[in-house]
Write a structure and sequence with these properties.
This protein is an all-alpha fold and 79 residues long. The protein has helices spanning 8-11, 16-25, 27-47, 55-78. 11% of the residues are buried. Pfam families: DUF465.
């Protein structure tokens, strides 16, 4: 298991301009990015034991992060 943060710009290399444009033009997309950053930070803090959580909670956070990433990917490919 990696404890490296999954920055959205690293997860979607070459899409920085598109991500920025969508964040500016689409409030829902901007909220998706914000939620992704929040859950990603929480997962990273749990993985590094800065803010330990129960294993099931950590798994659920990872699932939520993956779902947000999938939604972001769908929105990026739809443009």
């Amino acid at each position: 298991m990696s404890n490296t943060p999954h920055d959205v710009y690293e997860d979607f290399p070459g899409e920085a301009e598109k991500i920025h444009a969508l964040k500016v033009a689409d409030a829902h997309f901007a909220r998706l990015i914000e939620e992704y950053h929040e859950i990603n930070r929480d997962v990273h803090r749990a993985e590094t034991n800065v803010e330990p959580v129960e294993q099931l909670a950590e798994v659920e956070m990872r699932k939520k992060r993956a779902a947000l990433k999938d939604e972001i990917a769908r929105r990026l490919t739809a443009v």
